[in-house]
Design brief:
flat; Arc Repressor Mutant, subunit A; about 475 residues; RNA polymerase sigma-54 factor; 10 strands; alpha+beta; 22 helices; two-stranded antiparallel sheet; 4-stranded mixed sheet
Length: about 475
């Protein structure tokens, strides 16, 4: 059969992530301080981007200047949404005329000393991953015991048999869960010694196919530490350059995977949103303190007739980038407001009463309510904080699972945790409440049947010791 060349047309749809789209997605998940740094850096890099100074007394309105420059330099409506002068009034929940006073009230409800959030601990970080994993409930119970027996450096202090005895499970089941936990972030956590920690990281990096590297870690870490290289060169028939490559790989691993996590000391945060009550309604205000009001620079009016093609291309690209940044910032703030407004609608009881009335909520509920994708809601609620009449909370706090009540309704898991915390705070220290007794109290209070194991799980998540340990403490 003869070979021949043919031309063929084919149509296909493909999602292309442009740099502008990537920038818009990145802005969504930035915290407030990271956003300020990003905007300041963009203002330094882009000569067509500047901070609005308000009314400068110019006879020609700023909007007219932007539209005129747009017609000359770029044929699209770059200045659309660029004016932030009316930004807050467009989607604030109260008229603009009364907003200056409302900002003062918003500051009053969240004093500086209340604006802090605990740093993530190793235990909390691992428990969060455990709850999001595909493990069964029984395996998650084993995982919680494993995580509860880790040192500050991330090493497992209990043996497999001890954990099996504590969880009333088989040692093989404990080993299976342990292997899963060791692959959590940071990789290598829950290892029983340094060798196992490094071997887990090697496996995760797909370097475990090299038998020499595996043998160096398993049997010769002491030789490497003591720089006894000559016996290794003879044994593995390597030269010094090849051994140095193995050393570089081993040195790039982290023998103390849990050391990067603090002990939970507080770190101060600045809320992204203020929510407070005015009359019978809740008012939402975005915190724009320190965030520059951007506009296109007057440089876009310069004469381009004598400029080279390269200079024109540079100016056009920077002009386009400045306009896109302004639009992306506007969209970010607008999305944040819409998500917060939806959360207030879904969690009305929380804002009225407090944590004990927090309702079950998932990302899909908010996404359906505001007609956005779940990934967008997830990004905009990352590293964002809201100041409420009941304190400052991360937006992720409002999303929690639900427990079925006897009457068919649901109660949020965070509400159950709040009640457990309250019961234990009010208990008689000489006779602490057992998990079983707390379950009975929850049944009387919420009309919900909660197993003792579930109470223990929530108590562990709250970092509250068992009744016997609480009694010993007092």
């Amino acid at each position: 059969m003869a070979l021949e060349l043919r031309q063929q047309l084919k149509l296909a749809q493909q999602l292309v992530m442009t740099p502008q789209l990537q920038q818009a997605i990145k802005l969504l998940q930035l915290s407030r301080m990271e956003l300020l740094e990003t905007v300041q850096q963009e203002m330094l890099d882009n000569p067509f981007l500047e901070e609005s100074q308000g009314d400068d007394g110019s006879a020609e309105p700023a909007e007219d200047r932007r539209e005129k420059a747009t017609e000359e330099v770029y044929d699209q409506d770059l200045a659309k949404d660029a004016d932030w002068e009316d930004y807050l009034g467009e989607f604030a929940s109260t008229p603009r005329l009364v907003q200056p006073r409302e900002f003062e009230v918003a500051e009053d409800i969240s004093p500086l000393e209340a604006r802090y959030s605990a740093k993530p601990t190793l235990e909390g970080h691992l428990l969060w991953q455990l709850r999001l994993s595909s493990l069964s409930d029984a395996q998650k119970d084993i995982g919680e015991v494993i995580i509860g027996n880790l040192s500050s450096a991330g090493y497992l202090h209990a043996s497999i048999d001890e954990i099996a005895q504590m969880t009333e499970s088989d040692p093989s089941d404990v080993l299976t869960v342990l292997e899963k936990v060791q692959l959590f972030d940071p990789v290598g956590v829950a290892a029983r010694d340094a060798r196992e920690c490094l071997l887990v990281q090697i496996k995760s990096l797909k370097y475990d196919r090299d038998p020499i590297l595996l043998e160096l870690i398993r049997s010769h870490l002491e030789d490497l530490e003591g720089k006894r290289y000559k016996p290794l060169l003879r044994k593995f028939k390597l030269d010094m350059e090849e051994l140095k490559e193995y050393l570089d790989i081993i040195q790039s691993l982290d023998p103390l995977p849990g050391a990067s996590f603090g002990g939970g000391e507080p770190t101060y945060v600045s809320p992204d949103v203020f929510v407070y009550k005015m009359g019978d309604e809740f008012v939402i205000l975005l915190n724009e303190d320190g965030l520059p009001q951007l506009q296109l620079s007057n440089m876009n009016q310069m004469d381009m007739k004598g400029a080279s093609d390269k200079e024109k291309e540079y100016c056009t690209e920077k002009m386009r980038s400045a306009s896109w940044l302004i639009k992306s910032l506007y969209q970010r703030q607008r999305t944040l407001y819409k998500v917060m407004e939806s959360i207030v609608r879904h969690q009305q009881a929380f804002f009225e009463v407090g944590v004990s009335r927090l309702a079950p909520l998932i990302l899909k509920d908010i996404a359906d309510d505001i007609s956005m994708h779940e990934s967008t809601v997830s990004r905009i609620t990352t590293n964002k904080y809201v100041a409420t009449p009941h304190g400052i909370f991360e937006l992720k706090f409002f999303f929690n699972s639900g427990l079925e009540l006897d009457d068919g309704s649901q109660v949020g898991s965070e509400s159950v945790k709040a009640l457990i915390k309250k019961f234990i705070a009010d208990e008689d220290t000489k006779s602490p409440l057992s998990d079983e007794r707390i379950g009975e109290m929850l049944k009387d209070h919420l009309k919900v049947n909660i197993a003792r194991r579930t109470v223990a799980k929530y108590r562990t998540a709250l970092d509250i010791p068992s009744s016997s340990r609480r009694k010993e403490h007092f």
